[in-house]
Sequence to fold (390 residues):
Amino acid sequence: MKKYYFSSESVTEGHPDKLCDYISDSILDECLKQDKNSRVAAETVAGKGEIYVTGEITTAADIDIESIVRNAIKEIGYDNSKTDIDYRTCKITINMSKQSPDIALGVDKSYEAKMSEDKNNKEDSDAIKSEGAGDQGLMFGFACDETENYMPLPIYLAHALSKKLTSVRKNNEIRGLRPDGKVQVTVEYEENTPIRIDAIVVSTQHEADKDIETLRKEIKEKVIMPTIPETLLDSRTKYYINPTGRFVIGGPLGDSGLTGRKIIVDTYGGYSRHGGGAFSGKDPTKVDRSASYMARFLSKNVVANGYAHKCEIQLSYAIGVAEPISIYVETFGTENIPREEIVKKIKTTFDLTPRGIINYLDLQRPIYRKTTNYGHFGKNDLPWENIIKF
Fold:
């Protein structure tokens, strides 16, 4: 009988990288509130007492980036420069420019549309989606039937724990917690079926006067036990709660932060492949984000429609070109219909050009702050999580 162990991690919203993601997505949402056609690539760096915001923005929106940054830090709960960062006093540096005209050239009018115009074929030009991809790249989507939201169990449980850890901090159910934290879950599998939890790791920032043994007891009783199904825990399950014994210095004071550095946490916890592109701070003309969302939508619906028990889909694009360069479907031997038929269904049902994806998922809306934390996938209120018949 084949047995193996698989681990995935999640981080809280106070993790320095997630702080940067949240700031970048907050800037994006404020732009989209006023101008749905905003082109945004907002990057954030967090260090000791300082936030640096850079990137490219082309928008008709009138936004106050400094206020957006301070409000985002405040929402997370950072208010102490001695242990992490203080939203009231931190230095904020802004260095933004407009989108490169060379990039805009390919997004505004696709390669296909230009070729059609060169041939003086207006009918074809109108028929072809006019907008090209904002960059080249490859994007993956994944789904499986291990959980109710079609996510792999290790990342599903890791996100549930990190979300609960934030909840008990914000509602003061456990006193003396600070915003920074990380979680890791190791699941034991037999014949590709999850059977138990082998190990749980929780590291949470805390106040200096918090007793470590009290903290460990509270985390187990108020975070782990209410979150993890009892049937997955047994006498062999190992718990590592703040294993170093002290985690007072956190956030950007303990470790620098950077937008887009938690791409595995954002997706499938390492269970599926990743194309390498980050999401946060990018408007939906960037296929790094929009095509990854569409690939998740397609994979989830392949599984939800009973075509396979597990599905991974790769899409690839060239800058300035509307149609995807390739579509690849992997079902890991779990398919109930031929993979070629799944590919055919996808190609004949969905418009996978950047504009087609944006329109189908209605992506030109300020919905991105809610994606930043606890994964971009598996949240049923997001459009790429909808289940349809196809």
